[in-house]
Specification:
This protein has a five-stranded mixed β-barrel. The radius of gyration is 26 Å and the shape is elongated. It contains seven helices and 15 strands. It is an alpha+beta fold and 267 residues long.
């Protein structure tokens, strides 16, 4: 009786557009694939959706169970029009949302690079890893901040996999922003607890850009020296004043969101 009630409910309440349904493959053609959706009817993947799913479909066979998204309730032949790709994307976004919630460390495959950072892919979802979110040892330390040079250096990561955390996830905008630096935050919290605003620290310059410089100090800590905190001479860029590897002393002027901001001028 329970099974009959379930079937009756599904007949009275057919699937909605956008719903994820599950079915078994019953037949395939040159440009179409049919799914038995039980009481929900017969589904079809064809046309543009069939072409989009070629890589997935080549690994499937009659009898396999798959999930698909309803894109139209009834085709001209009376079938439910389905999309494998859209279903996979929706599931992938849900999985990524859970990983963001838990702060899980995940692997991102690097697909490309530009002056702003690295283009990635996780579970088929495109994402972006800004250069500012790279670990210090991966950050392109280009003294004059030349975009083409930064992009060239970042190209070495294409094809590799980097461990990252998700910092921005907006499925509706298909926006996925990643961070490699976030992995260090937990470790830095303990080291950071030893310092307070007003402390003077000594370390080495680890990177210099047009907007400022990075100073490495203590146990794996790194602080930012904004250009305005390096010199009163606005005509001089940070790259003209500081060099990578140079030892300097700086004062901690702010600690916010696990970031350290320093000053050479206020010592």
């Amino acid at each position: 009786m329970k099974a009959l009630r379930k079937i009756k409910t599904e007949i009275i309440c057919p699937p909605k557009v956008g719903e994820i349904v599950e079915g078994r493959i019953t037949a395939t053609g040159r440009s179409s694939l049919f799914l038995d959706l039980g009481a929900k009817g017969i589904g079809i993947i064809y046309g543009k959706e069939f072409q989009r799913a070629q890589d997935t479909l080549k690994n499937l066979k009659i009898g396999d169970k798959v999930s698909a998204k309803v894109v139209d309730l009834e085709s001209e032949e009376g079938y439910r029009e389905l999309s494998l790709i859209e279903a996979a994307k929706e599931v992938a976004w849900d999985v990524l949302s859970q990983k963001k919630e838990t702060g899980e460390v995940i692997e991102a495959e690097i697909k490309g690079a530009n002056k702003g950072g690295l283009v990635c892919e996780i579970q088929g979802i495109p994402g972006f890893l800004p250069a500012s979110q790279l670990l210090p040892e991966h950050y392109p330390k280009v003294e004059n901040g030349e975009g083409a040079r930064i992009a060239s250096i970042l190209q070495k990561f294409v094809g590799e996999k980097l461990k990252v955390k998700i910092i921005v996830l907006e499925p509706r905008k298909e926006k996925l922003i990643l961070s490699e630096r976030a992995l260090k935050i937990e470790k830095q919290k303990e080291s950071l607890a030893e310092y307070k605003v007003g402390d003077v620290v000594e370390g080495k310059i680890t990177g210099v850009t047009n907007f400022g410089a990075f100073l490495g100090f203590g146990e794996n800590l790194e602080g930012l020296l904004r250009a305005s905190e390096i010199s009163d001479n606005e005509s001089q860029a940070p790259t003209q004043i500081l060099k990578i590897g140079q030892k300097v002393k700086a004062k901690i002027i702010e600690i916010a969101d696990n970031r350290i901001y320093l000053s050479l001028k206020k010592i």
